[in-house]
Amino acid sequence: MQKSAREVLEQAQNEGWAIGAFNAANIETLRAIVAAASKLRSPVIVESSSGETKFFGAENLVDVVKNFREELNLPIFINLDHSPSEEEIKVGLDAGYELLHFDGGKLPFEENVEKTKRIVEQAHAKGLLVEGEIDHIGGSSAPHLGESAESAQKSTTYTDPDKAAEFCKETGVDTFAAFFGNVHGVYKEPPKLDLERLKKIREKVDCFLSMHGGSGIKDEDVREAIKVGRIAKINVNTEMRVAFREALEHDLKKTDEVAIYKIMPPVIEAVQKVVEEKIKVFGSEGKA
Ligand SMILES: [Zn+2]
Predict the structure, then answer these.
(1) Torsion angle, CA of 205/106/190/244, rounded to 10 degrees?
(2) 81 catalytic, yes or no?
(3) What is the pLDDT of residue 172?
(4) In whole angstroms, what is the distance from residue 238 CA to residue 242 CA?
(5) How far is the CA of 80 from the centre of ligand 1 (A)?
(6) Are 288 and 18 a contacting pair, CB within 8 Å?
(7) Catalytic residue among 81, 103, 135, 174
(8) Tens of pLDDT along 207-229?
(9) Tens-place pLDDT, residues 241-264
(10) Residue 180's domain is classified under what CATH number?
(11) Cα(152)–Cα(59) distance, rounded to whole angstroms?
(12) Is the pTM of the predicted complex or chain greater than 0.70?
């Protein structure tokens, strides 16, 4: 019997490692994630943002992830990442996503609580997990190599530990996305994390913690954040996107091949390498 997402998150939190949540918008990226998980016997979460979900199709993505899970007998879960509305949450819920992230960070606190609570009720009735957030994370899942991470941190609201505790208690979310200097994207210099704040969030908040912006944070800082915050889920996107594009550009220059299945294997390998490195840093290797 395979472990549920909740059981894996509990195990990660108790044992001091984190499960990686890797974004996939196409079959090549998905294959890369699955190959890395299979090679390192690691549980993984595949996730899709709003744009990625529309590109792949929610039901298609769920089906493919479930096929891989059965074929490889691995704990591979599927998460709807940063869903901006209740309508989009419903698409994920109906399609069979096991984890749903409602991003109400831009809403007034009371409205965010009200909507998140409603989503939690619907999701829990189906045995699904919900992630919530109260802040606005800066940056975007792209390389910003001309900028320092500080510029993105300036547009991020750092999580207030007391507000976070109140939000989790009132909504009943399973996972809380905490912001303590982590930002989306990769920058000239990695962001500096406010681990004192993370420690306070951990003390006050009684649910799983997730860390977004897992690309571009120094490995030792990621390990420290897992230790200090007992972070159980870490999101990664940008570094995989960059690896995909660079490998594809490199390949296309070398060949006039037109069969896609012959062009893509080195691209898949490049993305797989990123996922493997993250799995090792997060400590989830061998935990499947
Ligand atoms: Zn995110």
Answers:
(1) 110
(2) yes
(3) 98
(4) 6
(5) 11
(6) no
(7) 81
(8) 999 999 999 899 999 999 999 99
(9) 999 999 999 999 999 999 999 999
(10) 3.20.20.70
(11) 34
(12) yes
Q: How many domains does the chain have?
A: 1
Residue with tokens 């691209």: 267
* 94 in any annotated domain: yes
**Ligand 1 geometric centre to CA of 139 (Å):** 10
Element (H, E) at 236: strand 231-236
Tell me the CA–centroid distance for residue 262 and ligand 1, in Å: 32
pLDDT for res 108: 96
Calpha distance 113→45 (Å, rounded): 25
CA atoms within 13 A on the CB side of 39: 14
Residue 95 Cα distances to 5, 99, 117, angstroms: 17, 11, 20
**Domain annotation covers residue 287:** no
Residue 288 lies in a domain: no
pLDDT band of 156, cuts 50, 70, 90: confident
HSE at residue 29, side-chain half, CA atoms within 13 A, is 23
CA of 260 to the centre of ligand 1 (A): 30
